[in-house]
């Protein structure tokens, strides 16, 4: 069965955002081109790692003789996007993510694949249900400036969560934390 690809070659918008309160937030990678919009859920750690790796790729490209791809060292102000997510309809929950560089278009390439459940009963699915269970993926190509802005915003979104305990390094909940609770 062919994979359904949600492809965005030159997106109008590509952001990570959240829904919910710190400690119970759901992270989404949302991409829009014209009226086409796709939102996929991902983990906080996936979001943080994606931003980190995009910055690493861009920082390496800057060191190429003469910076032929015009990679910005910081986020271009005109590309800053602090708006909320648009209407979210989760397409899938992300399992694997791959990241690459396309020198022919000077774009960062992100591929996201859903979490898959390997289940012997999947072979019993009728033909009518096959389309609903067709494999899918998200393919996003971002110009270097957009990628730099994406990474910056994603780091800010990830950092806006619960504060980290200075003793154990785990998040501190609003109602207290085992390391900082008063002794009884």
Characterise the protein shown here:
There is one protein chain. With 184 residues, the chain is an alpha/beta fold. It contains three helices and seven strands. It has helices at 44-62, 127-130, 144-159, and strands at 4-8, 13-19, 26-33, 36-42, 90-102, 107-114, 136-143. It has a seven-stranded mixed β-sheet. A hairpin with a 2-residue loop joins β3 and β4 (36-42). It is globular.
- C-alpha Rg, in Å? 19 Å
Spans where pLDDT lies below 50 across 5 or more residues? 119-130
Described by the principal axes of the CA atoms, the overall outline is globular
Percent of residues in helices: 10-25%
Helices and strands, in N-to-C order?
A: EEEEHEEHEH
Structural class category: alpha/beta
Q: For the residues shown, what is the average pLDDT? A: 87
Strand percent estimate: 25-35%
Q: Give a short account of the largest sheet.
A: 7 strands, mixed
Number of helices: 3
Across the major sheet, the strand order is: 1-7-6-5-4-3-2
In short:
With 184 residues, the protein is α/β, with parallel strands linked by helices. The chain contains 3 helices and 7 strands. The longest helix has 19 residues, at 44-62.
Annotation keywords:
7-stranded mixed β-sheet, alpha/beta, 184 residues, single chain
SSE diagram, text form:
Layout: E1 4-8, E2 13-19, E3 26-33, E4 36-42, H1 44-62, E5 90-102, E6 107-114, H2 127-130, E7 136-143, H3 144-159
Parallel strand pairs: 1-7, 4-5
Antiparallel strand pairs: 2-3, 3-4, 5-6, 6-7
Helix pairs in contact: 1-3
